[in-house]
Amino acid sequence: MLRSMSGPARGSRLLIAFLLILPLVIGVAVSLFVRLVPRTSCHNEVVEEQLARGTAQRAVVFRRNCGPKAPVTTNVSVVATDGPLPDDVGNVLILKDVHEVAVRWTDATHLTVGYPKEAGDALEAGAVHGIEVTLLPR
Using alpha carbons only, what angle is made at residue 33 by residues 30 and 38, rounded to the nearest 5 degrees? Predict the structure, then answer.
């Protein structure tokens, strides 16, 4: 004689199945959210690019705008010649507001970056991707 499952036993199995499937559903939802929703509402506008002779690097001067509640920043990054500019802040120099910045390769492993003294506080790096960086407030 076959007994059908009813009452508390069936309810327990449904609850266990739900509790086992719930983390999977949450994981898929989070994964889709991370892939489909942009990390920031920032965008970069390239101002100037300078290729380094004898190497696959380039210096990029760009403005980063993250909307009305954040200041526009002037940035400099060293990136691969054939790669895109990352959707991030500069890895060489970050200046609050819009400023004129001059980049010049002195050789394949040395980059000089000039920027106005009145720019105030600057976030800067001494070396990036094996490139020595000299910053010259002028």
Answer: 140
58 vs 5, 15, 65, 73, CA distance in Å?
A: 70, 58, 22, 20
Measured over the CA atoms of residue 17, residue 33, residue 91 and residue 98, the dihedral's sign is: negative
The verdict on pTM exceeding 0.85 is no
Which residue, 28, 47, 53, is CA-closest to 90?
Answer: 47
Closest listed residue to residue 76, CA positions, set 135, 8, 7, 4: 135
Q: At 12, which helix (H) or strand (E)?
A: helix 8-36
Q: How far apart are CA 61 and CA 91, in angstroms?
A: 11
Closest by CA to 53, choosing from 105, 112, 91, 128, is 105
d(CA 41, CA 107): 36
Band (42; pLDDT cuts 50, 70, 90): very high
Residue type, 100: E
The CA–CA distances, whole Å, from 70 to 43, 61, 91 equal: 12, 19, 19
